[in-house]
Amino acid sequence: MSSYPPSIRDYFFRGLSFESEAQQYRNSGLRIGADEEHAERQLLNETLEPFGISLRNEALRMARLYALVYCFESSVRTLIKQRLMEVYEDDWWSQGVLTAIQRHAEGRQETAASETWLEGSKSDILEYCDFGHLAKIIVDKWADFSDLMPTQHWVKQRFDELEKARHFVAHNRLLSDGEFARIEMYIGDWNRTIGL
Q1: pLDDT per residue as tens digits for the range 17-66
Q2: Helix (H, G, I), strand (E, B), or coil: what is residue 175?
Q3: Span 143-195, pLDDT tens digits
Q4: How far, in Å, CA of 80 to CA of 78, rounded?
Q5: Residues 125 and 106: beta-carbon distance below 8 Å
Q6: What per-residue string of b and e applies to 107-140 under the rule 16 or more CB within 10 Å gives b?
Q7: Helices and strands, number each (H, E), in the chain
Q8: Rounded to 5 degrees, what angle do the CA atoms 156, 159, 160 make?
Q9: Contact 137/105 with Cβ under 8 angstroms?
Q10: Within its chain, how far is the Cα of 119 from the centroid?
């Protein structure tokens, strides 16, 4: 027998039953409970309200591009770490990454530890590598990545182009429609090639 009084057991059981039924409604497309996406959209609208409509529209276009570049870069970091851990296990950092890149990242991590407002709370050392370092890691350990990508030139070309665009996004410069399309094309090409 349970040590909980019947009223508490009933309360928990009703809660679990509701969640189970609510999930069935959600799966069928009905909105049940708090809508986080709607709340986030509302908060964004309130935050941007003081600015003109043209500026807000540009910001929202760039936000979509920022999200795309952020997801791409984060997924590349994850891919690199996973692949190097498969090959070098616990020595993935010391065996899989060039010494100059290690020193750079470790220096940035030390700075972040003493001035946390600069870097946030990242604990993964690979987060402290620059975007351009990611392609260098892949090319340097090409034997460990060659089954995923066609050529080193292909990797370098995509990273060179995306790094330029990334700088524009990071410095709040509006890109043209053609530049948006090129970034989407490169990232889509990358995702298809490596199997995302």
Answers
A1: 666 676 776 677 666 666 677 777 787 778 888 888 888 888 888 888 99
A2: coil
A3: 999 999 999 999 999 999 999 889 888 888 888 888 889 999 999 999 999 88
A4: 5
A5: yes
A6: ebbeebeeeeeeeeeeeebbbbbebebbbbbbbb
A7: 10, 0
A8: 80
A9: no
A10: 16
